[in-house]
Amino acid sequence: MAQTAAELSYTPYHRETSAFSGIFSWIFSTDHKRIGILYMISVLTMFIGGLCLGLLIRLELIAPGATVIDAPTYNAVFTLHGVIMIFLFIIPGIPAIFGNFIMPLQIGAEDVAFPRLNLLSWWLYISGAALLIIALFTGDKLPDTGWTFYAPYSTATEGNISLAVFAAFVLGFSSILTGLNFITTIHRLRAPGMTWFRMPLFCWGLYATAWIQVLATPVVGITLLLVILERGFGVGVFDPAIGGDPVLYQHLFWIYSHPAVYIMILPGMGVISDLLPAFTKRTIFGYKAIAFSTVSIAVVGYMVWGHHMFTSGMSGTAQIVFSFLTFLVAIPTGIKIFNWIASLYKGSIELRAPMLYTLSFIFLFSIGGLTGLVLGALATDMHVHDTYFVVGHFHYVMFGGLGIALFGAMHYWFPKMFGKMYNEAVAVVAWALIFVGFNVLYFPMFILGWNGMPRRYYDYLPEFQYWHVVSTIGSWILALGIFMMLFNLIRGITSGEKAEDNPWGASTLEWTVPSPPPLLNFLEPPHVTHGAYDFEAMNKGKKDSKKKKKGKK
Amino acid sequence: MDHAEHHEEHPMIGYGTYISVWLALLILTSLTVAIAGFDLGQYTTAVAMLVAVVKTTLVGLYFMHLRYEPKVFHYMILVTFLIMVVIVIFTFIDDYRFSYLNHEVQAEVHH
């Protein structure tokens, strides 16, 4: 390919010199791409920590009774697994890593709207993580409430809850600032010609997510502060012994934490909507339907929190209303699934590693979503509430959804971020291990739950052991796959082949810039003339520019 | 972009406006305090909330410049309020029923 003089002489973002050198040129950088990489390193480190705790939980459950850890430690381990995976991995996950790195490139901006605020978000994230780690090593007892910090136990236990809760509060601020930044960036910094309906669907996903981050996170912030107030000063908000109402805690907690599952999943759905056209070489089916369903999931998602409390003694009227609203979420979700499947029709499908993750996402997320309806229906929820069925559902939706989408995104945008390529064959083997391991690990949980195995239990009846053993073996396969994938990607960074600017032949704007991109992203200001997935217009544009170059010669 | 230009163009707002808004806020605060002295029965909360809404609107429109900003910000704030209203109503429908039940239980215990 002929390169212009400007392309040959550009400096990639990671070689750019600044006022600081060494590690400081990263941790004090306001470049959205460097911040994206910082998030990638910190979020994945936390993920590995949470993963090890998860393996420990599964190992403990391989046989009834005590096997490797004692019961109080077990309670602390599943609490930490939850807190780390939720607050430090899946909530920041895709928006903080790929939202930061890719979104400005996709809309044709030089950076996010508030670069310094962006850096502050990362620092808040690190502070929150540090506080959480301090909470583990100080105080008399490890936090053992489960990741939900349910009152009145959380306001009464001796565990080091106040600090852990404060850490979650600080992490919330990080999330709010990222959301604020993305809303402003998408409203104000789109390149000329980049209309709302020409934006890649990943940006739509981030936009809807950002609104939830800004509007829902303050609720949990206040709730967590109320827990600290009750613990520290005996203000009776949640503890009935001093005039509080524990169900109020559950309301306030889930007013945030239910929309928060959409903070986790909407960016993942955005990734899938971007990857499908890239590997089928055709426009996405139902662009507007997917965009609007993203927004409607965000809106309806606000009004379904009560379905976490069906058995908490909620009023009958509220139960029916919340159950009905929960079913409504299935409509926009179904619209997405059907549109994605329709996008495969008559496409020229290439089964590269990112595409394999994309197809796995659709499969696993559908199982997760449909089992969600079992939990959303009042009658069946009474039966399976607080059993392993819920754990299975949750992991299918969150890990099978967001986690798999994140892995897909890591492979898809890898050449753009690092200018290198990973080993495709190893990536495919790692994917196969992850996919098989995932199902062996989590599917038995549905069976266990249906048969009445309660969640969060340290011990169980011998009749449950068979499926627990299967599940534990699955956890080893899954972990092997994940470590293989990470090893392959790290090896790609250190010694991979040099990547082209657009190795996938994708149509969105980030692939028009060099890999890795220069400091301010675009060598020439982009002017957008067609939709994000318009391959025909993209190819026509390429031909035209070649003709122009020939004409000049 | 036209939004950006619009932003810089918005009219200078005199001290007079700010001082009048401030006075209005003070008067409304005294109103809240004064009303607290009367027994309005079930309307107590409603009236207090009404005054608070007027005050919030004034702060939003003048101190936070909403009056001079493009429509898109009005919609954003409106959506935010609507969501908050829904959240509060849903929570309190359930919570009120709870306190009602609790009273019933307590009454039975006392009998």
From TrEMBL, chain A:
Subcellular location: Cell membrane; Membrane
Coiled-coil ranges (or none): none
Stored Pfam families: COX1
Keyword set, alphabetical order: Cell membrane, Copper, Electron transport, Heme, Iron, Membrane, Metal-binding, Respiratory chain, Translocase, Transmembrane, Transmembrane helix, Transport
Entry EC number(s): 7.1.1.9
Reactions accelerated catalytically: 4 Fe(II)-[cytochrome c] + O2 + 8 H(+)(in) = 4 Fe(III)-[cytochrome c] + 2 H2O + 4 H(+)(out)
Basic residues bias locations: 543-553
Region (Disordered): 534-553
GO biological process, one term: respiratory electron transport chain
Name of the featured protein: Cytochrome c oxidase subunit 1
Naturally occurring in which organism (per UniProt): Uabimicrobium amorphum
Species lineage: Bacteria, Pseudomonadati, Planctomycetota, Candidatus Uabimicrobiia, Candidatus Uabimicrobiales
UniProtKB/TrEMBL annotation, chain B:
Coiled-coil portions: none
Key word Transmembrane helix present: yes
Keyword Transmembrane carried by entry: yes
Subcellular location: Cell membrane
GO cellular component: plasma membrane
Spans traversing the lipid bilayer: 12-37, 43-63, 75-93
Alphabetical UniProt keywords: Cell membrane, Membrane, Transmembrane, Transmembrane helix
Main location: membrane
Classification via NCBIfam families: caa3_sub_IV
Name recorded for this polypeptide: Cytochrome-c oxidase
